[in-house]
Design a protein that fits this description.
- By secondary structure, the chain is an alpha/beta fold.
- It is 49% helix and 13% strand.
- It has 14 helices and 12 strands.
- Strands 1-11-6-9-5-2-3-4 form an 8-stranded mixed beta sheet, with helices on both faces. A two-stranded antiparallel ribbon has the order 7-8. A two-stranded antiparallel ribbon has the order 10-12.
- Helix 2 links the parallel strand 2 and strand 3.
- Helix 1 crosses helix 6, helix 7 packs antiparallel against helix 8 and helix 11 packs antiparallel against helix 12.
- The longest helix is centred in the C-terminal third of the chain and has 28 residues.
- It is globular, with a radius of gyration of 21 Å.
Length: 406
């Protein structure tokens, strides 16, 4: 993807293959002397048993500019937490494994619930939010990054390139979003971005007209990537969605809180492959079916918050327009894949488009029937206002779990 195109909405930082990674890392080490950099890894225990995590740890152990690594561990019992602690001992950096299901953490969750501030559901959004709270409580990092724990093609260059734009004090960027081509083996992947988000944004522009927010989202080459870097000053007021709308939700928060010149996207890899979700045509609450519905709701909510009026007729027109746009986009991707010797199963792709079209209507119906739905987890500023001791208590609970379960 070595081009140098800029469309004017947000800055795109390319990999022009003109600078070595060691040279970039040396500069990051210098930045980190006065602007500490932390990394958040939201993971499921099951990912420790996969193929990706051992390589990720091996790559991260070579990184010299990180101040701290925070591992948010979900779906683990006591024995699995103990194993996770041993697993991550291979890291050379200061690190902590936060056992999100520990008795202490569950007690803190009950405190939030009593105040009406608990996350609406379990999942990656809650995991990320909790890790952000721990980082805020530490109050010693100027830059943070997040990336997924199922990246099969991980190289530590990804992290270097991801954090550089926000770690460099001479750059204005407060948020950097990673992007890359989704290629695995001989296949073109990234179905939800290619077949849902891109044509949905095209359809929205045709149905509801020009919106700066739509143009903003269309500027991102891979809006659903799980790789972000941010300056930590913006974290206390960040609203994290609790569902699959996390990545779109974070971009929406950047749109709400920051000027466009403070947001960039950065090319972090030539190839990227990770665990693939099932399409789940038979279960609307699982796999890519659930993901597509949550993403649609996240976009609809943001547009409504900016004054767009949605009706049942709007969603019917949107579904039809999306379907035609998605088929046009599929033709372009099919030809692109063929030219590059990659494979695309057109039957599977059109099946996905049909499912996504139905889920646009489903998301629209949920949106209309539940106008008071608040899927966002409260900001850490609000939690701190309601319970000024909560953040320090959470940090103490994580430290106690670390000490008690050897």
């Amino acid at each position: 993807m070595a081009d140098f195109h800029q469309n004017g909405n947000i800055t795109t930082l390319h990999n022009l293959r003109t600078r070595s990674v060691p040279e970039m890392n040396d500069e990051l080490v210098t930045f980190a002397q006065t602007r500490k950099i932390s990394l958040i890894l939201p993971c499921l225990y099951s990912e420790l048993e996969g193929d990706a995590m051992p390589n990720i740890l091996s790559e991260l152990s070579q990184v010299t500019f990180l101040h701290r690594i925070i591992i948010g561990l979900d779906q683990a019992d006591e024995a699995q937490f103990r194993h996770a602690k041993q697993f991550f001992k291979g890291l050379n950096q200061n690190h902590i494994v936060i056992w999100n299901d520990s008795p202490r953490m569950l007690e803190l969750g009950a405190r939030l619930d009593a105040m009406g501030l608990a996350p609406a559901e379990q999942g990656k959004g809650k995991n990320v939010w909790s890790a952000l709270g721990y980082l805020i409580a530490c109050a010693d990092s100027a830059v943070m990054a997040i990336h997924d724990c199922d990246i099969l093609t991980y190289k530590n260059e990804m992290l270097s390139r991801l954090v550089y734009p926000v770690a460099n004090p001479n750059f204005p960027y407060q948020v950097a979003k990673g992007y890359y081509p989704r290629i695995g083996g001989d296949k073109m992947n990234g179905r939800v971005t290619r077949l849902l988000v891109s044509p949905l944004l095209i359809a929205l522009k045709r149905v509801i007209g020009d919106r700066d927010y739509i143009d903003y989202l269309r500027s991102f080459r891979y809006p659903l990537s799980g790789e972000f870097a941010m300056r930590t000053a913006i974290l206390p007021d960040l609203r994290i969605p609790s569902d699959w709308g996390l990545e779109i939700g974070v971009l929406s928060e950047a749109w709400r809180n920051l000027a466009p010149k403070a947001v960039c996207q950065v090319e972090i890899s030539d190839a990227y492959d990770h665990k693939h979700q099932e399409l789940s045509t038979e279960d609307a609450d699982a796999g890519l079916s659930r993901m597509s519905t949550d993403i649609c709701k996240a976009v609809f909510r943001k547009l409504a918050a900016d004054g767009t009026v949605f009706t049942a007729n709007t969603f019917r027109a949107l579904k039809a327009t999306y379907y035609r746009s998605a088929l046009d986009v599929l033709e372009a991707y099919y030809n692109d894949a063929k030219m590059n010797g990659l494979s695309i199963d057109r039957h599977e792709e059109e099946t996905a488009i049909e499912l996504f079209a139905e889920n646009i209507m489903r998301a629209g119906q949920v949106f209309i029937e539940n106008p008071h739905e608040t899927p966002f987890i409260p900001t850490w500023n609000r939690v701190h206002s309601a319970d000024p001791r909560f953040l320090s208590d959470m940090r103490a609970a994580a430290a106690a779990d670390e000490a008690d379960y050897q």
